[in-house]
């Protein structure tokens, strides 16, 4: 698959996971589909790394995206927990920001699934970058 098609598919899956992550109390059958969608979200990133093993730009793009998502998730999780006394508006705003920056994490129903996917992409991109330097 061409690189620009993979980026488009990844962006489309991001939009889907970002929107569907805010569904309140989905039924059990929908939860299974949301988990599959979350797992599927990471496939284009993995394919980009697989296809771009010799392309430093692709490897650095996936590395940067995974690093940004993991960092934003940590920052917004800590900020959300720290804002317990700041009021409802601040808590909701931080929750929405966390949902947007960590879309697969919300969509997958189990937050660790999205974080694990980003961590796997991050480690794979680090390994691909290390191999590029050899």
Annotation keywords:
mainly alpha; 6 helices; 83% helix; globular; 0% strand
Task: Describe, in plain words, how this protein is organized in 3D.
The chain is mainly α. 83% of the residues lie in helices and 0% in strands. The protein has six helices and no strands. It has helices spanning 3-20, 28-51, 56-82, 88-101, 103-107, 111-133. Helix 3 (56-82) packs antiparallel against helix 4. The radius of gyration is 16 Å and the shape is globular.
Total helical elements = 6
Give the number of DSSP strands: 0
Mean pLDDT: 89
Largest sheet: none
Structural class: mainly alpha
**Quaternary organisation of the protein chains:** single chain
> Which sequence of SSEs, written as H and E, runs from N to C?
HHHHHH
Rg over CA atoms, rounded to whole Å, is: 16 Å
| Helix share, percent | over 70%
Report the uncertain regions.
Answer: none
List the helices and strands and how they pair.
Elements: H1 3-20, H2 28-51, H3 56-82, H4 88-101, H5 103-107, H6 111-133
Quick overview:
It is built from six helices and no strands.
């Amino acid at each position: 698959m061409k690189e620009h098609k993979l980026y488009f598919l990844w962006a489309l899956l991001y939009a889907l996971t970002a929107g569907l992550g805010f569904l309140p109390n989905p039924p059990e059958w929908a939860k299974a589909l949301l988990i599959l969608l979350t797992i599927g979200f990471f496939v284009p990133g993995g394919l980009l790394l697989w296809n771009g093993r010799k392309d430093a730009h692709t490897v650095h793009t996936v590395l940067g995206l995974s690093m940004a998502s993991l960092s934003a998730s940590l920052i917004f999780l800590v900020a959300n927990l720290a804002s317990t006394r700041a009021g409802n508006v601040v808590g909701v705003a931080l929750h929405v920001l966390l949902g947007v920056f960590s879309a697969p994490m919300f969509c997958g129903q189990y937050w660790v699934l999205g974080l694990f996917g980003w961590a796997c992409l991050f480690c794979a991109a680090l390994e691909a970058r290390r191999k590029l330097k050899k």
